[in-house]
Amino acid sequence: MATILVVDDQVQMLDVIRRMLSKAGHEITTASDGGEAIRLLTDGPLPDLVITDLIMPGQEGMETIMIIRERFPAVKIIAMSGGGQVSGLDYLPSASAMGAHQTLAKPFSTEALRAAVNAALADG
């Protein structure tokens, strides 16, 4: 299956996604913010897919998506958000415009996550 880097500042969300995708046979690595994710990508090897939250302290998801698109164009991206002080859902269309292959609104089901992963990995 695929190697996937999951980026979220909430440890519980990282654990849930890791369990959901590990059961499907994927190899999961995690990062607590965009800066850590970019360091992992730079040090390699590159994952097939990055799933990133959009609203995080430190380097947030939109900036992370821009850097991935610029430096690692072969890596697929899923943006996820559930809100924040301003509705994070408002950012999902912008994440798509910036290069995310799929988006997910939190909370999401295992089926929705797996469908987004499969669609992103199949995307050109």
Give a topology summary.
Layout: E1 3-7, H1 11-22, E2 27-31, H2 34-43, E3 49-53, H3 61-71, E4 76-81, H4 92-97, E5 102-105, H5 110-122
What is this structure, in a nutshell?
This protein has 124 residues and is of the alpha/beta class.
| Lateral strand order in the biggest sheet | 2-1-3-4-5
Q: In percent, how much strand structure appears in the residues?
A: 15-25%
Low-confidence stretches: none
The pLDDT mean sits at 92
Number of helices: 5
H/E series: EHEHEHEHEH
Based on the model shown, name its key terms.
alpha/beta; about 40% helix; five-stranded parallel β-sheet
Walk me through what this model shows.
With 124 residues, the chain is of the alpha/beta class. The chain has five helices and five strands, in the order βαβαβαβαβα. The protein has a five-stranded parallel β-sheet with strand order 2-1-3-4-5, with helices on both faces.
